[in-house]
């Protein structure tokens, strides 16, 4: 197919606008958005004309390549994004699903691993993919490393189909979960009472943690919680992690621990690391043989509600989840731990 350059003067006859056309029928002419000055008045306009014609010829060549590559496996280079992170971002926008944040957070993790805002497709090698997987295993716990890396592999698989790679560099790099790190502990009813009856070196941390035990809120939502979010019988907020609105009824103990209504923040907490250090000391003082972090409150809230017969959908909704998947996983692990203790109670010879 021949692609020709045609032109049309502007209404004031000062500019000449250019088109690419490959026939005389409707839809066989495309505006390029490029113009040249008909009578350039100075050197700037003369230079503009020279560069405009170079760009125009480039556009015509690109269109020829586009036509010639149809029904072939070749993808013209001008159609590929120079920065692979831009491709990654566009893929996320095109494939985003409600309640599934792993695709987006995998890009954030990949950027943190790279420590830069640009990488070309040619620099994404099998060694780099292995390095990213190992970074995830060091950085994250449980199934998170595997979840993030599988999304990364999905993006690279799509990129191969789109012509960025001849061979998918992540094809032979297997996603792995991190089974070696300490699993999050779950507090029993007795643990709740023991902690509340034990003094804590930082009373604000104690108040905030107990509040999480009775609401299931994450650290990221408790730390910035303001009194305007606390209604008469519930908390209403937009979750920091998901951006999803959440409303949780307030237990009387949660209301008591929050204290008298004021302005500003409900709790005045240190950093998350600082708070977890306080929790560790508090657990020791309460003689709890458990590794306590802030997220234990959320897990414990979930398990205790299910122990009391609350259905999965209700528990998931109170935690701000859009599905019951993670609620089931947490409770399933707890039941397995309980079974190990139960089996010890059988009679022995």
Structure description:
It contains 13 helices and 5 strands. It is elongated. It has 349 residues and is mainly alpha-helical. The strands form 2 sheets. Strands 1-2-3 form a 3-stranded antiparallel β-sheet, covered by helices on one side. It has a two-stranded antiparallel sheet with strand order 4-5. The longest helix is centred in the N-terminal third of the chain and has 26 residues, at 43-68. Helix 4 (126-139) runs antiparallel to helix 5 and helix 7 (203-213) runs antiparallel to helix 9.
Summarize this, please?
By secondary structure, the chain is mainly α.
Overall geometry comes to elongated
Query: On the 0-100 scale, what is the average pLDDT?
Result: 87
Strands side by side in the biggest sheet: 1-2-3
Order of SSEs, N→C?
EEEHHHHHHHHEEHHHHH
- End-to-end CA span: 90 Å
Helix count from the secondary structure assignment = 13
Largest sheet: 3 strands, antiparallel
Secondary-structure content class: mainly alpha
Topology diagram in text:
Layout: E1 4-9, E2 15-21, E3 29-37, H1 43-68, H2 84-95, H3 102-114, H4 126-139, H5 144-161, H6 189-196, H7 203-213, H8 219-222, E4 234-238, E5 245-249, H9 252-258, H10 272-285, H11 295-307, H12 312-319, H13 325-343
Antiparallel strand pairs: 1-2, 2-3, 4-5
């Amino acid at each position: 197919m021949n692609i020709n350059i045609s032109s049309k003067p502007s209404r004031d006859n000062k500019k000449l606008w250019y088109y690419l056309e490959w026939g005389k029928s409707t839809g066989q002419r495309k505006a390029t958005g490029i113009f040249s000055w008909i009578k350039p008045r100075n050197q700037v306009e003369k230079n503009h004309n020279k560069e405009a014609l170079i760009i125009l010829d480039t556009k015509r060549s690109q269109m020829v390549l586009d036509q010639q590559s149809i029904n072939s496996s070749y993808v013209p280079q001008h159609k590929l994004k120079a920065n692979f992170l831009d491709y990654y971002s566009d893929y996320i926008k095109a494939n985003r699903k409600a309640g599934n944040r792993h695709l987006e957070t995998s890009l954030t993790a990949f950027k943190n691993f790279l420590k830069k805002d640009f990488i070309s497709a040619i620099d994404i090698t099998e060694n780099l993919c292995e390095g990213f997987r190992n970074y995830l295993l060091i950085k994250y716990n449980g199934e998170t490393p595997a979840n993030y890396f599988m999304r990364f592999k999905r993006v690279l698989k799509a990129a191969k189909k789109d012509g960025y790679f001849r061979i998918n560099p992540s094809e032979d790099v297997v996603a792995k979960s991190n089974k070696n790190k300490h699993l999050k502990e779950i507090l029993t009813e007795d643990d709740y009472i023991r902690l509340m009856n034990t003094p804590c070196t930082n009373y604000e941390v104690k108040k905030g943690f107990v509040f999480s035990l009775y609401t299931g809120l994450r650290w990221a939502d408790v730390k910035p919680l303001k009194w305007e979010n606390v209604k008469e019988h519930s908390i209403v907020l937009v979750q920091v992690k998901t951006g999803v609105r959440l409303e949780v009824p307030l237990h009387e103990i949660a209301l008591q621990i929050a204290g008298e209504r004021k302005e500003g923040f409900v709790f005045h907490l240190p950093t998350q690391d600082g708070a977890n250090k306080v929790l560790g000391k508090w657990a020791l003082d309460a003689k709890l043989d458990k590794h306590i972090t802030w997220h234990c409150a959320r897990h414990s809230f979930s398990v205790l509600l299910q122990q009391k017969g609350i259905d999965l959908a209700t528990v998931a909704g109170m935690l701000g989840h859009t599905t019951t998947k993670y609620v089931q996983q947490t409770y399933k692990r707890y039941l397995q731990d309980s079974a190990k203790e139960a089996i010890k109670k059988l009679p022995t010879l």
